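stage 2 :: seqdesign
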């Protein structure tokens, strides 16, 4: 995360804070769900969570085909902010609850939202995933 921090300057601050807070809240909810539901439910859900992550990963290139003006990366449209928050929140709940594959799921989610090319998405993913994992670890330690 430290090595790619300079790329985060390209992300608008409003998007950064919106998705960072959403990611932290999702990590909190996911960790609390794990604590409250116990490992029996986790063992039941693991195959389904892995299947869902795999399907999203496989379908992502087809769903997020570049638009005609892909060279003009204007970022996330204001109208899509609520959708972006919901998508990142759901992925963060998954990350706080299960954690495995969160990086690729976050990349898929940010790519679906047209947040930019891989050089812009990966540093953003690193920040969001680090934040949600940090919150989840604190909850699980407590």
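stage 2 :: out
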């Amino acid at each position: 995360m430290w090595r790619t921090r300079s790329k985060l300057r390209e992300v608008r601050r409003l998007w950064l804070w919106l998705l960072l807070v959403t990611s932290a809240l999702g990590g909190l909810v996911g960790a609390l769900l794990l604590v409250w539901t116990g490992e029996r439910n986790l063992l039941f859900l693991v195959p389904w969570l892995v299947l869902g992550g795999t399907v999203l990963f496989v379908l992502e290139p087809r769903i997020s085909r570049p638009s005609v003006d892909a060279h003009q990366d204007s970022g996330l449209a204001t109208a899509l902010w609520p959708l972006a928050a919901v998508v990142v929140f759901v992925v963060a709940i998954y990350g706080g609850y299960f954690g495995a594959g969160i990086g690729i799921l976050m990349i898929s989610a940010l790519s679906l939202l047209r947040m930019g090319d891989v050089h812009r998405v990966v540093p953003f993913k690193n920040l969001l995933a680090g934040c949600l994992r940090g919150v989840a670890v604190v909850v699980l330690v407590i």
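stage 3 :: structure notes
- The chain has one domain: 12-63+78-141.
- Helices lie at 13-63, 81-97, 102-112, 118-141.
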